[in-house]
Specification:
Chains A, B: It catalyses: tRNA(Asn) + L-asparagine + ATP = L-asparaginyl-tRNA(Asn) + AMP + diphosphate + H(+). Chains A, B: Belongs to the class-II aminoacyl-tRNA synthetase family. The structure is a homodimer. By secondary structure, chain A is an alpha+beta fold. The first copy, chain A, has 13 helices and 18 strands. Chain A folds into two domains: 92 residues, OB fold (Dihydrolipoamide Acetyltransferase, E2P), CATH 2.40.50; 302 residues, BirA Bifunctional Protein, domain 2. In chain A, 31% of the residues lie in helices and 27% in strands. At the A-B interface, strand 1, helix 4, strand 6, strand 7 and strand 8 of A face strand 1, helix 3, helix 4, strand 6 and strand 7 of B. The complex binds magnesium ion (MG) (2 copies).
Amino acid sequence: MWVYVKDLKKHIGQEVELKGWVWRSRSSGKIAFINLRDGTGIVQVVVEASSVSTDTFQNAKKLRMESSLIVKGTVKEEARAPGGVEIHAKEVIPLQIPKEDFPINKPDHSIEYLMDHRHLWLRSRRQMHILNIRDAVLKGIRKFYWENGFIQIDTPIFTGAIGESAGNLFEIDYFDYGKVYLAQTGQLYLEAACMALGKVYNLGPTFRAEKSKTRRHLIEFWMNEAEVAFYEHEDNLKLQENLVSYIVKFVLENAAEHLHALKRDISKLEKIEPPFPRITYTEAVKLLQKKGFNIQWGDDFGGDEETEIAKQFEKPVFVTHYPRKAKAFYMQPDPENPDVVLCDDLIAPEGYGEIIGASQRIHDYNLLIERLKEFNLPIDAYDWYLDLRKFGSVPHSGFGLGVERTIAWIAGLEHIREAIPFPRTLYRIHP
Amino acid sequence: MWVYVKDLKKHIGQEVELKGWVWRSRSSGKIAFINLRDGTGIVQVVVEASSVSTDTFQNAKKLRMESSLIVKGTVKEEARAPGGVEIHAKEVIPLQIPKEDFPINKPDHSIEYLMDHRHLWLRSRRQMHILNIRDAVLKGIRKFYWENGFIQIDTPIFTGAIGESAGNLFEIDYFDYGKVYLAQTGQLYLEAACMALGKVYNLGPTFRAEKSKTRRHLIEFWMNEAEVAFYEHEDNLKLQENLVSYIVKFVLENAAEHLHALKRDISKLEKIEPPFPRITYTEAVKLLQKKGFNIQWGDDFGGDEETEIAKQFEKPVFVTHYPRKAKAFYMQPDPENPDVVLCDDLIAPEGYGEIIGASQRIHDYNLLIERLKEFNLPIDAYDWYLDLRKFGSVPHSGFGLGVERTIAWIAGLEHIREAIPFPRTLYRIHP
Ligand SMILES: [Mg+2]
Ligand SMILES: [Mg+2]
């Protein structure tokens, strides 16, 4: 019976069949050891010359790194083994033994080399742990929305030239229609959908033709956006801190072994629970000035500023009430000070930077027209978006969470490129 | 306390606040009725002149379709009402009353008109039911993979020119790199990932620059692909019939009210359980010839052929063992007849067409090289894909499920364009 490594503990004393690859192997005289991986874990297979056929023992000795094989044997309890079990082999059947050394076999390959071999690098333990954490983060996001009555609305990738910043868009020739663009956000569509369904979210790939080459940027990344009718700024902040806390808790409960394997300091993640600290943009500027940053009210924050702000807190921190002119046209002004808007950036601890951008949206038709003009945006292109303010407009709020940045923070990765299976950066679309 | 319509039954006798939009309203003399929708349901609000202020009663009479409003009132049990409750209003607070008639207010708008107003059309009951069914289908897909030990691997959208059919690709200028293409499939990447993680799946948008204008085609659609190391043709068929049966059951259990509202014949869906019938391509050709179709062995099936085959069965039917030359280069030949391959198309009942394309993949390096040559494909572009056959190659299989086609079938939709929130077709990318 074919059993996965992760399930071996349920089969102690039984004869099973394992299918996988050689992680490491060694032999000496009358005994061979194969560390077999199958994607769910690694188990040690013991092959004793005295208890198998000559063929099987010869097969076991021939194996090399990443040979594929089938092993038949008995599951034995073994307290000293990592998974608590080992396999006493009866039969070892090689499927394919590589003719060359496996390309990823040294501890000091350059990052360029590793990325060139991403299709094979995925088999390393570190990458398997990261991908399992990614899987848990994505599950956590979904479960949060499922439990909170949100409907998934998949927003389109092909769009006209509307969105946040028309600058960094990828263009496509669309049949006889002319140019279309790859969406940088589904927000405007989610705004339409939340007027139909109340609470909606998306989760999918996003594209930014930005010539940034930092450890926090990808050209193709995943984003989760949510939008809720009748939510105002305060509701929006609570939703975000609940979501982020839920994700972290979910990963701690479901992927702790992978965090441990990456030597992530779990105690830092265990502190992540609502409420999150909040400071206004204006307070943040004062704080940065006091720390010696050359920054003026009205400037946007870069990575260094975000890191300095985050350092003051053990949890993610909301920076709220940015200057209207530094943010997108659709943000609702603060009724107490129309120079700032009801928005927030959520900055992760430990220097991982902004993981959420959020705001209450303008719901007044005339104010929105005024802002489109102030930002020199083509009013015609926003025809349907303006309709939402003509037919039963209501206050509403939402946000976008960067999935890879969230993964990088939770897993404790130095660079975001490891947080996605096949990263696309400025100079890389292969493999 | 703000309560959603779907939760009203838990608040019978209590005073609540509802936030939403006017679905329909009418008044006569001393009484007004407002059907309020909030995205989770519709409830009747009764406003009696004798029990509210003059302002509130005047407000209630002023309301028109899609006005946004807040209602405060008491929840009363009312067996004759659709949700079993109605609201006796204390206060009616209009938020925004449209100056124009709501654009979607007649039963006979043309499909072009409705699609031009998709951002508002989403508020119609029919579209809300469909989007709830879509949400349930997507949840069902995920839960299946979660329960069966699969890891989500998000495959890239930006890719080099490799994939199934280089014909229908959208092109992008990628910085100094040159042309890149929007992926039509993540299969090749999933093949790499399944060698690392065993069982993997994706679920995301896919793009096909195909000038098809049928009720089964979208330019941008969602696809779910899965790939499993060590799975052969037979395992692959079982995985597919289990997945599809799971999705249907999940929707029946979690979205039955929405199926009923669309008048879907539930009894047809209740029959969907494993095993699914199977016929070979060769048998299907004979069947079609007997029915008078002008088709020869070697031809591919179109929509009409698929519908005729599907008519013979009450469940989805697997058509297996297609001619090698009619399918993609990477399919494993049948050991008993190398002119056909170990593949299947799963054809939905009731004329909904192909919802899955699947195959066992070639795992032998030399055979794969031979096929690349036979199909005139550039071997260089497949360098990393070929690596998978050099380092621990194993038999493996997978498939791709068309999400919108699956939704169209389950919801009983005539056209696939209603199965996605913002459809992109040959002539439409707006709104
Ligand atoms: Mg920022
Ligand atoms: Mg077909």
